[in-house]
C-alpha cells in the first residue's frame, strides 16, 4: 500500500512509486496537484502532452517510455514538438516519467 494525495478534501491512493493506484481517480485537479508536487505550472503545451500520453495509454494499454513518446509525438505534431529537447523543457525531471504521473497513468516500464 502506498501513500495518498489529498485533492479536494479527498485522499487518493498512490502506489509506492508515487503514481496513482487507480487511473480512474484521475481528473484535472489531480493533475494540478501532481504538477504542483513537481514544481510545474501547467500551460497549454503541458496539457497537450498530458492528453497525448493518456490517448497513447488508451490505444496501446501502456504508458509511453521516452523513445515511444518522442516518436509518436513527432508523427502527430511534427519535429518541433516531437523531440526530446522540447519535452525536457516542459518536464525537466523526465518527460515520460513526469508527464505520465501528472496524467494519472502507471509509470512507464522502461523508466528508472
UniProtKB/TrEMBL annotation:
Top-level taxonomic group: Bacteria
Major localization listed first in the record, in broad terms: cytoplasm
Molecular functions (GO terms): sulfur carrier activity; transferase activity
Subcellular compartments: Cytoplasm
GO cellular component term, pick one: cytoplasm
UniProt EC number: 2.8.1.-
Keyword Transferase set for record: yes
UniProt record similarity statement: Belongs to the dsrC/tusE family.
Active site: 111
One of the protein's GO biological processes: tRNA wobble position uridine thiolation
This protein's UniProt keywords: Cytoplasm, Transferase
Main function: Part of a sulfur-relay system.
Protein name, entry field: Sulfurtransferase
